[in-house]
Every structure is written in C-alpha cells, then in structure tokens.
Predict the 3D structure of the following.
Amino acid sequence: MTTKTGHWLAVGLNPGEVVDWTHQVRDGLVDKYLDQVHRAGGLCVAAHPHAPYPSGDFMFPFLGLDVVEV
C-alpha cells in the first residue's frame, strides 16, 4: 500500500484480491484494511517506517501490524 501517510505491505493475499490503498491516517480506515488482510490469512508489514526521505514517513499506528521492516 503506497498511501500519502506511509507504506505498508499486504503479504499473502489470495490471487486477484485487492486492498484499497487510497486511505490515510485521518480517514480512520486502516483497521478495516488490516482486518481484510488478516481474514485472508495474510500479514501486514510496516514498510521502512523511519526511512530518511519525505515519502518514507510512516504515520499509521503500529497496532494491528504484524511486522516492522527495519
């Protein structure tokens, strides 16, 4: 998911399953999409949450994510 407020990975989805990537922190929708991935048996990964460049800023809470990329 390449969102305006951070990148996160949906790993292990079924072929053809799509997760809406247009959400942002202020929308309050991230839990809905994390649940979607978990129901499919997948993992949610915070991708490079502390990357030293502007698009690397991760603003979502870590609660609900399974893994943090370091």
